[in-house]
Amino acid sequence: MTYHPKSDFMTVMIERGFLADCTDYQGLDEALTSGVQTAYIGYDATAQSLHVGHLMNIMVLRWLQKTGHKPITLMGGGTTKVGDPSFRSDERPLLGPEQIDANIDGMKQVFAKYLSYDDAENGALMLNNAEWLDGLNYLEFLRDIGRHFSVNRMLSFESVKSRLDREQSLSFLEFNYMILQAYDFLELNRRYGCVLQMGGSDQWGNIVNGIDLTRRVLDHEIYGLTTPLLTTSDGRKMGKSQGGAIWLNGDMLSPYEFWQFWRNTTDADVGRFLKIFTELPVDECDRLAALAGSEINAAKIILANEVTALLHGADAAKAAEATAHEVFEKGGVGDDLPTYELSADELGDGISIVQLIVKSGLVKSGKEAKRLINENGAKLDDEPLTDAGLMLDASALASPIKLSAGKKRHALVKLG
């Protein structure tokens, strides 16, 4: 990247590693220095919570607002009914309107932690594309919008090509998705003066479509910017762990587990993640990334504290660090550990340790729990667990017990 930006926003994007590509670096940079600009990212409501994989682009919206511009979080109440086929090997399951609305309510809780939805000139807007998509007249839409799209060109986009090359079916419903997303950009430009769409680099084709459509219909100059698809240094997709997705809603993943995810960052990723997921100055991120040996662990704790404080608040970050200290360094039982409350009905006359390990969420199946025990990876109250046939009754659970899978994953089990 040889371009030297004038605007604060583009400077942040380049310095902190947020920028993968842009349709017109100079044009966008000049627009950003000429006054408050409006930009959006779209989120389909496919789950009740956003996850860590969304966090990079949420930080992009936060920096956009911090540098004086106006972010739009566009909820895909309309497009979720179709499903984005980008780089998927199969069609998404279709959700009903009630589930979509419930998912949007869950996702809104996260955005409010990072953005200010107020009446300021650069106050964020929360919009839903069902507002203009639900009422579309199909014939008018085909005539006014559909005529601007070349099927030959749509077939050349990598997201579509990858499906067709593998001879996997792509339904007409999904093929329409990119037209609807392009139409979102047109409507946001027409209604709110939005000049920039941002998203992951897998959205490049969809973003370019929206720019072309808006230029053809409204003759307006608008822009697209993408962020790199983030993988960890060992090649894994960001946001997945042994236990599943790293959710951003506290009721789906505890602040402690969220903190622990960042504390377990690989050494090679610390500097990059500090720049992307925290607001620490770039020089400080570089200094922390250069720490070697056991000192890098101090940088990981700073990373975990900073990221957790942004999402769950400074108190939650402090409590998570205190729990980790208690559990890892003193071998104690931290108050903040993920806890499973066992009902009297579940306990009955007794319950097997294998079932408890599964119920606590440390593993997903009894088979996995048995393997963990056989390979000496399980502990009960910090003592090695060797008997996969162990049964526990009410007296054994009179006080909470601590279960561990390996060195880093722990849970409490107590009677409810």
Notes on the structure:
The chain is an alpha/beta fold. It has three domains: 8-227, HUPs (Rossmann fold, 3-Layer(aba) Sandwich); 254-329, Orthogonal Bundle (Tyrosyl-Transfer RNA Synthetase), CATH 1.10.240; 339-415, Structural Genomics Hypothetical 15.5 Kd Protein In mrcA-pckA Intergenic Region, Chain A. The chain is built from 19 helices and 15 strands. The chain has helices spanning 8-15, 25-33, 52-66, 97-114, 130-133, 138-144, 151-156, 158-165, 172-175, 177-192, 204-218, 255-263, 270-277, 282-289, 296-312, 314-329, 344-347, 353-359, 366-374; strands spanning 21-22, 38-43, 70-75, 125-128, 194-200, 223-227, 240-241, 244-245, 339-342, 351-352, 378-380, 383-384, 391-392, 401-405, 409-415. The strands form four sheets. Strands 1-6-5-2-3-4 form a six-stranded mixed β-sheet, sandwiched between helices. Strands 9-15-14-11-12 form a five-stranded mixed β-sheet. Strands 7-8 form a two-stranded antiparallel ribbon. Strand 11 and strand 12 form a beta hairpin. The longest helix is centred in the first third of the chain and has 18 residues, at 97-114. The relative contact order is 0.10. The model has no long low-confidence stretch (mean pLDDT 87).
